[in-house]
Amino acid sequence: MRSVRARAAIGATLVVAVALVAAGLAVLSVLRTNLIDQADLQAEVAAREVAGQLALDTAYADLDLDDEEDHPVQVTDEEGRVVFVSQGLRAISGTGSAGVSPVPSASVGATPSPGDDGDDDDGGGSGRPERGEVSSDDPDFSDGTATVDGKQADYRFAAVEVTTSAGITLTVHAGAPLAAEQEAVNTVRGAMLTGLPLLLAVVAGVTWLVTRRALRPVEGIRREMAAITASEDLARRVPEPDSRDEIARLARTTNETLTVLEASVERQRRFVADASHELRSPIASLRTQLEVAEAHPELLDLPGAVADTVRLQVLAADLLLLARLDAGEKPGAARIEAGALVREEVSQRTGDRIPVTVEVAEGAAYEVSGSRGQLVRVVGNLLDNAQRHAENRITVQVAADGRGVRVEVRDDGAGVPEDERERIFERFVRLDDARSRDDGGAGLGLAIARDVAARHGGTLTVHRAPEGGAAFRLWLPYAATA
Questions:
Q1: Final residue of a domain: which of 185, 204, 231?
Q2: How far lies 36's CA from each of 28, 30, 74, 182, in Å?
Q3: Structural domain harbouring 127
Q4: Which uninterrupted H or E stretch holds 452?
Q5: Residue 400 lies in a domain
Q6: Sign of the alpha-carbon torsion through 281, 283, 286, 290
Q7: Could you report the per-residue pLDDT of 246-302, keeping only the tens digit for each?
């Protein structure tokens, strides 16, 4: 099942089906319980009415029974013998005794009729027996059947005990029909069984339509992405729906990703083009010198050939480093003292045009972590840039700055125009004045320095120096304590 619409429709239908079945069973249970409670009440009322008459010593033949078809009555004595049944009762079950034919009982003859005075011989009393008593306990209920006038039906029976004036205990079983309860339950069950499939079909259809409508923008995004993949045109964008839901956010995120990807690819293309151009120049110059030397050895410009070879070697090293950085190469975890690193790098630059002044607080330790070789490369590139632009003075200051170390390289040159302060960190970017001073620079030094700083969790920015020139600020976080 590969369709999201199908899975959503089936899932919603199953959930609704389970909920409806559970709710239906609960409704049927409550309905059956309420109807049985009503039948219990009717049976108890009928049984107590008969028991009340027996308590008043009403003869069986004189019992007043209401609607004997709806409320069949059976009376048993203490020994379980049937002493009375309502008229028309031909069979019964569920009362503890299946008898429907009254048997002679001594209790019947022993119960005086209400009109018998019966004076005693000694004249000591009126001779009227005491009144019987109906049990106040809750009656026992049971399910059973009864056949009245040839019609068999289910009944709910209530059993009420009564004690006659002669002290004889009788049990009155009176029934209430369950036909209404059964008909109501069957009607509700039939309605549920009929309506449930229809309702589930409606739920499935609505879910399918709603899901299809909701996923329509996703299909549009998919088609556009497939077209972009086929055409390799990263300038295209997926359609963004007007809604503010997750799909709209997905479309916006996809377009943002395409924008970043397009910029990255374009940057990569420019990088390859610029690298090819930069490599072509020293290679062509070197080839020309070698061809001239081959034809006229006396005209060989050996220093120029060496300079072109060095330039080519430096450019190749820069390109390889940028390739490693773009590939996500992680810096090392060595602990490096920033002040010592700067002093060492400056001490090795014996051929610089302008001397470099290093300012580091005595006794201070500024430890950072990372790749020593890459950080040396950053400091060297910043010093090379300062040497190209400075007039008379270059200063390197190492100091604490918040939770990290600030290495600032300042010169007294012309500085960097404010609108160019971000552009100079792009690859193969050289300002006009820089190009006039250094024909060999490829415009990769500052780009490499910023990339390395970012890989080490730091930053590299340019500001105006107090001397009037440029101040490049390299910030690196302190090394984590063990």
A1: 185
A2: 12, 10, 20, 10
A3: 4-185
A4: helix 445-455
A5: yes
A6: negative
A7: 888 888 999 999 998 888 888 778 777 777 777 777 788 788 878 888 888 877 777
